[in-house]
Specification:
About 15% of the residues lie in helices and about 30% in strands. By secondary structure, the chain is an alpha+beta fold. It has one domain. Strands 1, 4, 5, 8 and 12 form a 5-stranded mixed β-sheet that branches. It has a 5-stranded mixed β-sheet with strand order 14-17-18-3-19. The longest helix has 9 residues. The two termini are about 25 Å apart. The relative contact order is 0.22. It binds zinc ion (ZN). The site of zinc ion has 8 residues, from loops.
């Protein structure tokens, strides 16, 4: 299964391996994220920079980051590709409007290959909306009371591909990210194929674009790491998650200020 949205990626990974990102599959095409969002120029804030510029969760300009994956701060690849007949389930549908509200979930057991261009990372996002994280990262987040990740399961990384000195020294999990609020359609400048917003799931058809990821503040459920109704692709992260990871020496693939994350 190829990632259909980036030609170079599709060409590089046309080996028959199944990229864990399972967007736009014909049988269960979710009605969002027609393209892979890219940060605006200068949007990516290096983790090092973030570490020296801590903010509180109330700081308006850095209220949230978007957790990204695929390519890390330094541009190097960090991806997981399934192999060996990993099964996927049915994409979830909204019971009220019938639209797809998520990607087809991977069903354990999950086996695959980790591609690591430069660094082995503790926390990264998978395009399907789940996150990939080390067992230690899961434990640290839980001990710190970070909320928003559920249903973790261990995956079998059969190989790590990349520079010869890259060795797998950690066990990896995949965890589901909970919905923790709703998109602010106006502030996000969200463009959708329709304007009939479902009151249950926040969907209004296929997402055609947005200028930033903005959340309706009154809709927030208090999670630290979450997705949002109406724009369920991006995974939002409070600054506290970054700080907890930093204090524990855990690496995050990429964090982009939500104001700068567009499609
Ligand atoms: Zn709905």
């Amino acid at each position: 299964m190829e990632r259909a949205h980036t030609g170079s990626d599709a060409a590089r990974h046309a080996s028959g391996r199944q990229r864990i990102h399972r967007e736009a599959e014909s049988a269960g095409r979710p009605g969002f994220e027609a393209e892979v969002p890219r940060p605006s120029p200068q949007a990516t804030t290096g983790q090092q920079g973030l570490l020296t510029n801590r903010t509180t969760d109330n700081s308006p300009q850095f209220s949230f980051f978007v957790l990204d994956g695929g390519h890390c701060e330094d541009g190097s690849e960090f991806e997981f590709y399934t192999e060996g007949g990993t099964q996927v389930g049915e994409a979830p549908k909204c019971s009220q409007c019938g639209r797809f509200v998520g990607m087809r979930p991977l069903l354990p057991p999950v086996k695959g290959v980790l591609e690591s261009g430069r660094s082995v990372i503790d926390l990264a996002k998978l395009v399907g909306g789940d996150v990939l994280l080390t067992e230690r990262c899961w434990r640290v987040l839980k001990e710190a009371g970070i909320r928003g990740l559920i249903n973790p399961f261990a995956i079998d990384v059969v190989e790590i591909r990349g520079p010869a000195d890259r060795r797998l020294t950690a066990n990896y999990l995949i965890a589901e990210v909970q919905i923790g609020g709703s998109v602010d359609r106006v502030r996000s400048a969200l463009r959708t194929s329709g304007n009939d917003v479902c009151p249950a799931c926040g969907s209004a058809g296929i997402i055609e674009g947005y200028d930033r990821v903005a959340v309706e503040m009154e809709s927030l459920l208090g999670l630290d790491l979450f997705r949002i109704n109406g724009l369920p692709g991006p995974v939002l992260v409070k600054p506290r998650v970054r700080d907890v990871c930093s204090d524990a020496g855990l690496s995050i693939c990429k964090l982009i200020p939500a104001d700068c994350y567009s499609l």
